[in-house]
Amino acid sequence: MSRLKSLALLSAAIPFALTGCATMGGTIPDASAPISQSEAQQGAEAHPKIMQEFGGAMTGAYAAYVEQVGKNIAVQSGLGNARDSFTVSLLNSSVNNAFAIPGGYVYTTRQLVTLMNNEAELAAVLGHEVGHVAARHSQRRQAKATQNSLLGAAGAILSGILLGNSGLGQQISQGLLQGSQLLTLKFSRSQELEADKLGVQYLTRAGYDPHAMATVLQSLAMQNALDASLQGRQNATIPEWASTHPDPASRVQNALSLAGSATGVTNRDTFLTRIDGLTYGDDPSQGVIEGNQFIHPELRLAFTAPSGFYMVNGTRAVSINGQSGQAQMSTAPYSGNLETYVRQVFSGLSQNQQIAPQTIQRTTVNGLPAAYGTARVSSGGSQVDVVVFAYEFSNSQAFHFVTISQAGRTEVFSPMFNSMRRISATEAAQVVPRVLDVVTVGSRDTVQSLAARMAYSDAQEQRFRVLNGLTSSETVRPGQKVKIVVRGR
Questions:
Q1: What is the CA radius of gyration of the chain?
Q2: Is 183 exposed, middle or buried (0-12, 13-18, 19+ CB in 10 A)?
Q3: DSSP characters over 30-99
Q4: What is the pTM assigned to this prediction?
Q5: 10 Å Cβ neighbour count for 269?
Q6: pLDDT tens per residue across span 70-88
Q7: Angle 181-185-186 (CA atoms, 0-180°, nearest 5)?
Q8: Which domains occur in the chain, in start order?
Q9: Which of 126, 215, 260, 281 is least surrounded, with the fewest CB atoms within 10 Å of its CB?
Q10: ∠ CA 409-414-416 to the nearest 5 degrees?
């Protein structure tokens, strides 16, 4: 959750949704047609808003390397005749995400890059996204969903939680499970496969091993399964790559078939050397999740999620998800009156129905002035309770939770409400990032000994295997470069 970002301001600033490539209007050109003037203009207008939404673009050696690889693969599409036709950005985001928008703008998050194991996989991911743009998939999808927008059919969360007249829980689930990143309109399976096919073609033309599309999809599937296991979920498909790319596991075999017997370079050691030291997971400037605690060293706050819930840290908010309810923690403009603040958050929850608490009660939580209200709302034939619980941190800054649970079950979030607290300067200083450390396997190293160096207290071997694309039976060999995650400074 980035420092002092306002949901209301962001919702006004970003009037469109992303679908791997953005959903923008216009006719559907041929898949081989170059970037049009209209597409270039649309992309240029959207680009700064995307930067704001996804934590901003990284600079320096990591970004330059991703830009180089991205432009090399993008020119294979025929969308632009020169490398300068494309803008490739490495985003400072801790979610596994990649996308492209018309106009030659291609993006990947640093977290997704850390999951890759060679340069060909990086090219495969970016090539897949360029394939969506080349095939004009977003325009085709918009023809079927002309109302898609951040405040429309996607049911995204920007100014609090959008609650429609029906399907309330489903809409909230869609939004909260994305960690408050932009919700997107899912591509069809045929469009995903078409983008995979185009990506494989681009890899081959660029001289990369086309099997990289299959191996990176396999790593994504393994990461999804690990996330589900760590979070106690049965469903291993959320969160997933861009939230628009359904079930990467089901596409692995198709990608292998597309690659056939073709060969090419992977540039594994070069890639691993170039990403050594890259931030892994949350950036402390956006707050970090440690177990069931969220701590933000710059905002000087911390809270604990209820038992059985898991958190996802987004650019604008933290989502808290579980079987018995869902929640979001964020901020909004504050004028110094907590009761007014709570009512304003409620008023922003729905475009389709008025949601307001019967009463607002004042209290104190760990020395913080607080106020809260509850509204009972009809959702799909049942009743749910929506709670807004706000805290004053200064005369100009407040934070709040918005929660949804079955009617009469709001107590599931009581421990979380009561856990919000200020943190000391000493505690804030102890929050340091995790980073990738690329090491060379020694003669005595094993998967187990290397995994023991991972900066986690749980699932060390599983995390190490997924990070390095190793199955449960694969081993490491002396001289091989591998990634581990360590504490930075």
A1: 23
A2: buried
A3: -TTPPPPHHHHHHHHHHHHHHHHHTT-B--SHHHHHHHHHHHHHHGGGSS-SSGGG-EEEEE--SS--EE
A4: 0.81
A5: 14
A6: 999 999 998 887 788 899 9
A7: 105
A8: 7-148+185-280 (no CATH), 286-429 (3.40.1000.10), 434-487 (3.10.350)
A9: 260
A10: 125
